[in-house]
Amino acid sequence: MVNNDLARAGKMILNSKYVVALAGAGISVESGIRNFRGPGGLWTEYGEPPMNGYQRFLADPKISWERRVKREGFSKELHEGLINAKPNPAHYALVELEKLGILKHLITQNVDNLHQIAGSKEITEIHGNFSKLRCIQCNSRYEIGAISLESLPPYCPNCGGLIKGDTVMFGEPIPEDILTFCRSEIRKCDCILLVGTSAFIYPAAGFPWEVRGRDGTLIEVNLYETEITTFCNISLRGKAGEILPELVEYIKNEG
Ligand code: APR
After folding, report:
1. Are the C-beta atoms of 212 and 189 separated by less than 8 Å?
2. Is the Cβ atom of 36 under 6 angstroms away from ligand 1?
3. How far, in Å, from the CA of 2 to the mean position of ligand 1?
4. How many other β-carbons are positioned within 10 Å of the β-carbon of residue 55?
C-alpha cells in the first residue's frame, strides 16, 4: 500500500518536465559512508574542519600533500569508507529514474563515485571525486596513479600548474566548468529532488531556492527535518534506500 505523501511526490514528478536531483552524503550512509552533520555525522564527532582548507593548501602545498599521503584522523576513516563502499538501492533507483527519461540530471555533492558505479550517466560531481586529481590552473583531471607522487607537490603534465585532489576543499571555489554546467541544469529544472542533503553548503544549497523562486517543485527525501524542509512541497521522511525504490516503483506503475 503506497502512502499518500509518496503518491503525491510521484505525481509531482510525473507532472514535471525537467527533474534534477541534488544528492548529498545521506544517500551513501546505507553504503557505509558516514555523513557529516546530524546524528552519526563526521563533523558532529570530530568538529567542522577549518573553513580555509584551500587557503592552507595554497600556503604550503607540500605539507598538505604529505598529510594527505599519510592519512590520519577523520581523513583516514573517510578514505577507508570510500574505497570499500558499494552502491545501495537509492543509487540504483536514481539510475532507473534516469533510464525512464524522467530524471534529466543528477548533481551530487558526494565524492564517492557510487552513482557512476551504479550506472548514472547524466551526472555532475559538484564537490569532485575522491579517486581523481585536478590541476588548479587548467582543471585537467587525472586518475590517482596517473600522476607520480614521488616528489610533492605534483605538477600538471599539461600546463605545469599545481595539482591537488579533485575533492573541493573548504574555501575553494567550485571549478568554473562544473559550476557553469550545474547552473545551466538548474535553470532548466522545474522539479528538484533533494536526497540525503542538509542543504547547508553553498553554492549547491542555493539550487533549491532558485527552483523555488520560479515556482518549481521541491521534493525532499531525508531521515530528518532540514533547513529547507518547510519550503519543500513535500518531504518524505525515512531512508533514501527504502523511499527512492518505492517512489520509482510508483512512477513506473502510474507513468
Ligand atoms: N536517507 C536519507 N537521508 C539521510 C540518511 C538516509 N539513510 N542518512 C542521513 N541522511 C540525511 C541527514 O539527515 C542529513 O540531512 O542526509 C543529510 C546529510 O547531510 P550532510 O552530512 O550535511 O551532507 P551534505 O548535505 O552532502 O553536505 C554538503 O558539506 O562538509 C561538506 O563537502 C561536504 O559535500 C559535503 C557538503
Report:
1. no
2. yes
3. 26
4. 13
The 10s digit of each residue's pLDDT in 196-208 is 999 999 999 999 9
Task: Say whether 33 sits in a helix, a strand or coil.
Answer: coil
**DSSP-based helix, strand, coil % in the chain, nearest 5:** 40, 15, 40
Integer-rounded Cα Rg, in Å, for the chain is 19
Cα–Cα distances in angstroms (integers) from residue 180 to residues 17, 50, 164, in the given order: 21, 26, 21
Ligand 1 neighbour 171 (Cβ under 6 A): no
127 is catalytic: yes
pLDDT tens-place string over residues 179-197: 999 999 999 999 999 999 9
Q: What is the pLDDT of residues 18-69, one digit of tens each?
A: 999 999 999 999 999 989 988 888 889 888 888 999 999 999 999 999 999 8
Q: How far apart are CA 10 and CA 52, in angstroms?
A: 41
Residue type, 144: I
Please name each of the domains of the chain with its CATH number: 1-31+85-127+174-255 (3.40.50.1220), 34-84 (no CATH), 132-165 (no CATH)
28 Cα–ligand 1 center, Å = 9
Q: Which residue has the cell 567542522?
A: 48
Residue with cell 564517492: 112
User: For 65-122, how does the pLDDT look when each residue is reduced to its tens digit (9 = 90+)?
Assistant: 999 988 877 778 788 889 989 999 999 999 999 999 999 999 999 999 999 999 999 9
CA nearest ligand 1 atom 5, residue: 26
**φ and ψ at 250, to 5 degrees?**
-60, -45
**198 touches ligand 1 (CB under 6 Å):** yes
Residue 207 amino acid letter: F
Is residue 172 in contact with ligand 1, taking CB distance under 6 Å?
A: no
